[in-house]
Amino acid sequence: KNADKSTVTCLNCRTDFKFYGNTTNLKEHLKRKHPTLIAIPSTSNDSNDPDTDLQNIDNLDNLSNIQLPSTSSNVQNHSLTSAQSCIPAKRSRQLKLFGSTKNNELTIAENNDIDKSLVKMIIADYQPLSIVENVGFLEYTKKLQPLYTPPSRKLLTTKLLPGQYDIIFSKLKYMLKNVNDVSVTTDMWTSDSTKSYLTVTCRFICDDYLYSPVISTKEVHGSHTRENIASVLSIIFNQWDITSKKYHHPYVAHTLNLSVNEAIDKNKEFLQVLKTCRAIVGHFKHSSFATDKLQEFQKQMGLPELKVKQDWDIIADCVKILKPFESMTPEFSGEKYPTLSLVIPLIRGLQLMVKNIKPEIDAGISLQNSLLDAVTRRLGILEKNKIVAKSTFLDPRFKKTTFGLADNAENTQKWIIEELTSIICLNNEDYNNITETSAPATLTESSNSLWEHFDNKLSKVRSVINPEVNSTLIVRQYIEISHLQRGKNCLDFWKQHKRTFPELYKLQLKYLCITATSVPSERVFSKAGLLTNDRRNKLSPKNLDYIIILNNNYNMILAIQ
Which ranges carry the HAT C-terminal dimerisation domain (predicted)? Predict the structure, then answer.
């Protein structure tokens, strides 16, 4: 308290503020400016346990008992040590950034929490494992929490990363055990250190939600022969217990790209224009002088008409024709919604859209005809592909309406009825087995005669309603339901109707999880390039596998912990 008795001075920062006979201003100032210097004196002389003197930072009422020393005009000469000597010896521990500590050490729980956050940062941002050895990072962590020591790189790779991987592995394996059907996509890529890797993703529907986790990234040794690739895939499938019958269906986006390339290669005039455009772009990219001159000319007004106007007309026509193909690719590339069921309606829409375009020059007309021919020949046949057709039929947004030919729609309906009949027959066998085993072991002759009439009548009813008729009725009822709006998620429809159509619900789990492209696994190796650059090319294949799986399933980690 100062001589005028109306102001007080903080002995730590020498700030003056009003004094009204209580410690409110002092309390608020210490809370805001010096939280780690707050000391609460003991209010009891009977306790011998120092832990009973610990108080919460918000409980500052006892500060009124502290006797602050009087000061003179030369208060600046007081040191922090002399100020602290005026405070009673018993005090609470200093508060640290990550909570209270004992004996100036982090608790095991606090240390583990920071370790987990560090691992999540490394996997989420694809940071190099050597970051824990970088001087700047160590200084930064020391400023945040002086009591924390980051783990060594060895500890990261032998304990922390494998620990997080084991959590994800167990969770995914449990989920896969509870689903009957999964869709698998694969892709190969080469790291900066010229190592070849095979990444596998799978898609499945669990609890009416579509999952697309990465399950493995393995190094491929030797030539990329089908035997070597099959051997790596077998190891991965056995590791995840994916061992039953597998079916192959074409990569639709790749087939679409082949159709476009085929049409362009057939159009010599447009192909020549493309080569010229590429040469011009390449010239300006490699010459800053030419780029500056081009920009200078672009700013001028009244330039004469270009002599290559016909080339610009060709480009304008062809861009207009190719635009629908560019729009189609992102539709096939989704990870959070079924994509195979989109193939038939999108191909049908693409054909109609390209056909309705009116090119103005011969080169445009030629490209249009070539594209329509290639799409019809390469992709039009997918209406007859059982897997693709069934997927479209089981999508309540499309059913039979998007098929180009009525015969293809009718054939698909027959395929669905046949598979549905098999499911119903299997269910009936299970029901009969349960009924037989649950019947009383011994029945008297009198009881048999009492129930004989009922049993005979029930067997006649069962014989009348055979599985094929039942399947036909179920499919007909499904078709008669109003179509789901195109912008809605078809999985939500099946979630609501799983009790109405239990057998169809099982079928959609099988076909709607299938992806139309290998984009999920392609996205992985585009990200993995960040992992295998010059600063990270010493990653072992095992650690690379850990980080890729953890990164691509990062949201699942957050949900678990």
Answer: 476-553
